[in-house]
Structure formats: structure tokens, C-alpha cells
């Protein structure tokens, strides 16, 4: 379709639709005219064309038939509307949340004589009040325990029985009147429930003011025991409120975010640190039709997950800077009623916790991928462990040379994606610059030509058949091309040995190692492919064909 005309310059949201008016993509913009226009620009400048380094956009634009824009008052409204529309339409080209586990809520039963609190993961139409969601069961349970201790509203999975001879243990330890022992009337208990609701709704200033007034009145009436109890309540409320707002203390509370991405599958792991202690984590899986960056994934997590939460700490530590970082921080702060900072730490324990989150995200992603049909992720995981790689080698390429005598020497590369051969990515090369039997120089030529092709993505692992010399000439070819894969190894046979850069002695693997078997399969495949090409060239030569 052609670029839409008369687009507004206001902030807002844009929806790309297909011929059936199905929403394929939702995005937000500070300036709709500029942002939407950049999708239609085919130039090489990434500041004016979103197609640069994003080939999936060209695919999407090939099926777009309609652009709808919605103007709003400001960027924060655009951000909120973007998240809402993504959740409603689940567009094909947006990043999608895959998590099938509901987040915990605090449930307050309202149709019972003595209402109670529960931590649940599903909201039902049962007349109860629900508060949340919370990012973890730990924080929801902690809030319930605080409310039970301070206001005497019970945390229980079943309706509270009455007529007991003695108060329950919690009431005895915490000094509360026990409804199960008929120590408090339903009317008095209802007042405690109302205060609990105010607390869960965030109306804590009202609660503090009310406690202060009652404490002063009790002191004037010389009800010192009641005044002391109210003083303890006030301290508890102040502690909970201030612990959410104070940053920079020796016992900080923050979330640290880590990610792992393989193909169109990804995981965000949020590590929870409260009062300086690691108290748990949440793994959040996502999927996408197109390749995504770490920054795009984190941004989507923040607007899709964090906007609903009620227990966000005052600091969220990020591994990278993201688009709309300041805007999202302002939005979340407005939602929570206190300042929330999104920051990329440079040193210290927050960097360590981000590394921990990254490690756990990778572990969770690998666990998910093992359950994926039609792939060989178990071998990829074995290969990752064998070579001590930071990530799964999603894209593996291998090179080999066939040079029988001096007749028609050739080279070839093969490509495996997620452990499976991708024959569309196989390439064959006629040797052009090397004369005579010089396999090393031929490897260098083929490698240089392969990595000089900027239209193809770089592999996570590049394998050359041979030993230290083949590895050395491979690196020389990479140097000449000016583009490098993440990892390069040489694989020698009989017995199988792996040569790594910067290491004199090869590494070996136990017999039957899945990682080594994967490498052997890739080596055999490139050997088969290059020999087949060589024989084809020789047949053509014998028939007098070019």
C-alpha cells in the first residue's frame, strides 16, 4: 500500500491491518506522521527508515492494507493505549506473552460473617474483592500476614468457624481479638475489614491519619494499653509505606531483569530483592514472529506485566537502555503513587543480580526448548556446555574444501538452525584465487567470501574441518572480511578433537556426548555437500561444459 496522507503530528497509537481488517501490529508514537512514515521509507538511514536492520518490517509491510491512527493527549496515554490494544488484539507481529500461569491476587471474601484473606491465582465472579496482581506469591502472602497482624483480618483458605473455647494461636501471639472464639463482634470486625480494604487500595495516608487521631484520643483518655497498640500499628504502616519509597539504603528493595533469546522464543526473568535479600524470581516467557532485541523484549515486559502490578519496588535494574525508558518510569510512578526508577547499573550488586537473572532466564529458555518438537535442542544444550558458550548456538555453519588433485577445487558451507539443516542457507564456492593443492589458502578464500556477504546473518558458531592450521587460516579469512561470528572452532577426527582459539591443546568429550555428536553430524554434512559439488564440477568438465 502507499504511504497514508494527512497523518496527524500528535502523539497516539497506530494499527496496521490486513485486507480482512485484522490487526497485525500495534505501536505508539510521539509524532504519528513521523513514526508511521518511517515504515514506508526505503532508504538506508536508520533514523528515517525502520526497515534498516529489520527485514521483518518489509515482510509485514507487504501484507498491510490499512493504517488506523488514534490520537491521544500525551505520550503516557499512548503508552497505556498501546499496551491495552496489544492485549486485546494479540497482533501477529507484536511480541506476545506466553506465560500460562496467572499472577497472584489477594482475595477478600465478602459474603461471610467474618471475611478472610486468601492468596489466589484466578479471579472468579463470586462476589469477593480482588486486589493485585502481585508479581510473586511471596509478596502477596507477606501483605496478608501484615494485615492479619496489624488489623486482625484472618488469612485462611476456608470460612472461619466460631464458638471455639480458645482463641487461635495467631491471635494469641499477635494480641488480636479472635472471631473464632467470639472475642469480637461482626460489626467491629467489619471496621477492621474496611481499613484493610483501604490499605490494599493504596489509601494509606487516610489510615495513618486515622490511627494518629485514635492514638491521641486514647492517650487523652489515659487508655495507655490501647494507645500503645495503636502506636505499634502506626509504626508497622509507616514501615511498609517507607520501605516502598526509600532508595539508597543499605537494605535496598529492587527488581533485576535478565533475558534470554533464541529465535522467536524468549524469556524475561525478574529477580526480586527485598531489604537486601534475594527472595525469589519470576520467569516470563514470550514469543514473536520476528527476531527481537533485548531492549524490545524488556520494554514489552514492562508495559505488559508491570502496569498491572501493585508491588513494584522503587527501583527496577535493567541490563540495557530501552526505548521510552523515562516515559515508562513516569507512567509506573503515576500508577503506584511513588517514584519508580528504571536504571541500568554500571557496578555493584545490582549488576550481579542482573547476571543472575540472565543465567536463570537462559536455563528456563533451554528447559522450554527441550519440549519443542521438530528441533534438537538437547544436542544444542550439550554443545553449549561442551564449548562453554554463553548462549545456545542457534545458527551453526561449517566450511570444507574438496581438492582432488588440481582439478576443479571447490569449497562449501552448510548451515544448521536450531540443530536442523537449513538447505536454503547452504552455499557453494568455486575456488578463484588459489592455484595448486593448498587447502589452507582455499579455506581462507572461502571464509573471506562467506563473511564478506553482508546480506547474511553471522553464525553463533562456525566450524572448520581440520586442526590448528585450518583454524588459523579461517581466522585470517575472517580478518580479511571484517566480520566475525561469535565463536570459531576446528574439528579434527580419529579421534574427534576440538581446537579452540588461543588454546594449544584440543579438548575432548566423552563418547556419546550429544554436543560432539552434533558437531560430527554437521561436519559429515558439509563433507557430503562439498564432495557432491566437486563431483558435479568434474562431470561437467569431462563433458566439456563450463
Please supply descriptive tags for the structure shown above.
alpha+beta; 4 domains; 19% strand; 546 residues; GIY-YIG endonuclease; 15 helices; 7-stranded mixed β-sheet
Mean pLDDT: 82
Radius of gyration: 31 Å
Poorly predicted runs: 241-250
Oligomer: single chain
Work out the helicity level: 25-40%
**How does the helix and strand content classify structurally?**
alpha+beta
Question: Can you walk through the features of this model?
Answer:
The protein has four domains: 12-94, 3-Layer(aba) Sandwich (GIY-YIG endonuclease); 105-245, no CATH class; 254-328 and 339-369, Nucleotidyltransferase, domain 5 (2-Layer Sandwich), CATH 3.30.420; 378-542, Nucleotidyltransferase, domain 5 (2-Layer Sandwich), CATH 3.30.420. Strands 13, 14, 15, 16, 17, 18 and 19 form a seven-stranded mixed beta sheet that branches. It is an alpha+beta fold and 546 residues long. Strand 18 (488-492) and strand 19 (497-499) form a beta hairpin. The protein starts with 11 loop residues before the first strand and ends with a helix. The model is unreliable at 241-250 (pLDDT under 50). The chain contains 15 helices and 19 strands. Helix 13 packs parallel to helix 14. Residues 205-240 form the UVR domain.
Amino acid at each position: 500500500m502507499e504511504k497514508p496522507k494527512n497523518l496527524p503530528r500528535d502523539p497516539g497509537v497506530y494499527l496496521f491491518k490486513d485486507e480482512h481488517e485484522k490487526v497485525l501490529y500495534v505501536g505508539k508514537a510521539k509524532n504519528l506522521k513521523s513514526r508511521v512514515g518511517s515504515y514506508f521509507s526505503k532508504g538506508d538511514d536508520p533514523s528515517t527508515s525502520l526497515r534498516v536492520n529489520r527485514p521483518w518490517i518489509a515482510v509485514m509491510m507487504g501484507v498491510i492494507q490499512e493504517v488506523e491512527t488514534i490520537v491521544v493527549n500525551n505520550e503516557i496515554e499512548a503508552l497505556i493505549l498501546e499496551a491495552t490494544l496489544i492485549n486485546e488484539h494479540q497482533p501477529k507481529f507484536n511480541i506476545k506473552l506466553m506465560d500460562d500461569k496467572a499472577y497472584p491476587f489477594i482475595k477478600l471474601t465478602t459474603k461471610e460473617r467474618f471475611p478472610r484473606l486468601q492468596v489466589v491465582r484466578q479471579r472468579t465472579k463470586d462476589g469477593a474483592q480482588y486486589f493485585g496482581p502481585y508479581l510473586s506469591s511471596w509478596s502477596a502472602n507477606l501483605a496478608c500476614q501484615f494485615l492479619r497482624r496489624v488489623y486482625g483480618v484472618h488469612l485462611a483458605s476456608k470460612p472461619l468457624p466460631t464458638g471455639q473455647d480458645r482463641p487461635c494461636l495467631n491471635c494469641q501471639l499477635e494480641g488480636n481479638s479472635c472471631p473464632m472464639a467470639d472475642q469480637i463482634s461482626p460489626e467491629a470486625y467489619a471496621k477492621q475489614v474496611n481499613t484493610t480494604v483501604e490499605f490494599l487500595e493504596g489509601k494509606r495516608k487516610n489510615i495513618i491519619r486515622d490511627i494518629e487521631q485514635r492514638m491521641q484520643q486514647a492517650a487523652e483518655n489515659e487508655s495507655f494499653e490501647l494507645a500503645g497498640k495503636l502506636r505499634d500499628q502506626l509504626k508497622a504502616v509507616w514501615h511498609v509505606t517507607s520501605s516502598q519509597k526509600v532508595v539508597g539504603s543499605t537494605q535496598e528493595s529492587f527488581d533485576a531483569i535478565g533475558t534470554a533469546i533464541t529465535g522467536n522464543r524468549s524469556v524475561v526473568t525478574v529477580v526480586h530483592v527485598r531489604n537486601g535479600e534475594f527472595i525469589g524470581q519470576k520467569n516470563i516467557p514470550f514469543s514473536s514472529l520476528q527476531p527481537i532485541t533485548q531492549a524490545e523484549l524488556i520494554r514489552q515486559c514492562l508495559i505488559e506485566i508491570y502496569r498491572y502490578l501493585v508491588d513494584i519496588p522503587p527501583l527496577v535494574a535493567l541490563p540495557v537502555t530501552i526505548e521510552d525508558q523515562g516515559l515508562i518510569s513516569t507512567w509506573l510512578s503515576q500508577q503506584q503513587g511513588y517514584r519508580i526508577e528504571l536504571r541500568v547499573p554500571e557496578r555493584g550488586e545490582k549488576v550481579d543480580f542482573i547476571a543472575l537473572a540472565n543465567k536463570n532466564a537462559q536455563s528456563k529458555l533451554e528447559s522450554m526448548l527441550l519440549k519443542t518438537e521438530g528441533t534438537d535442542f538437547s544436542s544444542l544444550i550439550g554443545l553449549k556446555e561442551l564449548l562453554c558458550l554463553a548462549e545456545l548456538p542457534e545458527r551453526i555453519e561449517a566450511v570444507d574444501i574438496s581438492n582432488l588433485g588440481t582439478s576443479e577445487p571447490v569449497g562449501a558451507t552448510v548451515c544448521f538452525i536450531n540443530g536442523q539443516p537449513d538447505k536454503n542457507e547452504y552455499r557453494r564456492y568455486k575456488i578463484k584465487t588459489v592455484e595448486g593443492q593448498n587447502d589452507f589458502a582455499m579455506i581462507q578464500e572461502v571464509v573471506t567470501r562467506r563473511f564478506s556477504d553482508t546480506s547474511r546473518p553471522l553464525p553463533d558458531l562456525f566450524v572448520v574441518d581440520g586442526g590448528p592450521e585450518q583454524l588459523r587460516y579461517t581466522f585470517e579469512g575472517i580478518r580479511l572480511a571484517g566480520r566475525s561470528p561469535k565463536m570459531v572452532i576446528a574439528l579434527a577426527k580419529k579421534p574427534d578433537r576440538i581446537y579452540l582459539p588461543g588454546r594449544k591443546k584440543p579438548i575432548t568429550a566423552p563418547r556419546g556426548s550429544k554436543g560432539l555428536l552434533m558437531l560430527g553430524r554437521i561436519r559429515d554434512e558439509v563433507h557430503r555437500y562439498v564432495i557432491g559439488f566437486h563431483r558435479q564440477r568434474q562431470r561437467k568438465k569431462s563433458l566439456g561444459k563450463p
